[in-house]
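Worked example 2:
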Amino acid sequence: MIGARWQHTFALGAGLALTGCGGSSPEANSAAQAAAVSQSSGCANQAACQSQCGSGDAAACGKLGRMFETGDGAPQDYDQAAANYEKACDGGQHESCAHLAMMYDIGLAVEEDPQKAAELYARACDSGNRWACKRSEQLKR
């Protein structure tokens, strides 16, 4: 289990990743993140998201990853969060790349790998995510 410091860092980073570091509070970032995820896929619950993800809906995989990450709508399971974020990222859901990058950055449910994290942050950066761009550059130094 990760410590409280890392949980806060992970949650804040994930919120910033989706909002592009727009200067909002962590609470506003979290609300914006939840809204972005809920709009990106039509699945309403874990079973629906699993079905749609299994059919290749990358947005549903991202939403499922978020459910497993937060424990909101599915049991909290970081391994499942990472697996679903990877499917979503591979399917072009760049916000999921940012989430997965954070997991590699801090070694949450995956082995800590700064190089892999930098690559994933760069993918999120390609979609205009300024926070991911900054973190990618920091890791490449």
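The first helix runs from residue 4 to 19. The chain has one domain: 29-140.
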